[in-house]
Amino acid sequence: MGAVAFFAGLLLFVMGLGKWQETGSAAWLFGSLGFLLVLVVVSLIPGNGKGGKKG
């Protein structure tokens, strides 16, 4: 995952938290936290499907 995709994901997370504060709906909170968790897990996978890191 590129740096641009990571920061775009963080932006979506922050926007989701803003929606949660506006609406008070727990769905926005849990959706944003779940999205951030997926973003972190995908960014930690070595190689991201590109053969992995060697060395």
Quick overview of this protein structure:
This protein has helices spanning 3-23, 26-44. The chain has 55 residues and is mainly α.
Describe this structure in words.
The chain has helices spanning 3-23, 26-44. The chain starts with a helix and ends in an 11-residue tail after the last helix. It is elongated. Helix 1 runs antiparallel to helix 2 (26-44). With 55 residues, the protein is an all-alpha fold.
Topology summary:
Layout: H1 3-23, H2 26-44
**Low-confidence region ranges:** none
Q: Output the helix-strand order.
A: HH
Strand percentage, roughly?
A: under 5%
Silhouette: elongated
> How far from one another are the termini?
20 Å
Give the helix tally.
2
Secondary-structure-derived class: mainly alpha
Helix content: over 70%
The number of distinct β-strands equals 0
Mean pLDDT: 77
Question: Major sheet: size, sense and barrel closure?
Answer: none
Based on CA atoms alone, the radius of gyration comes out at: 14 Å
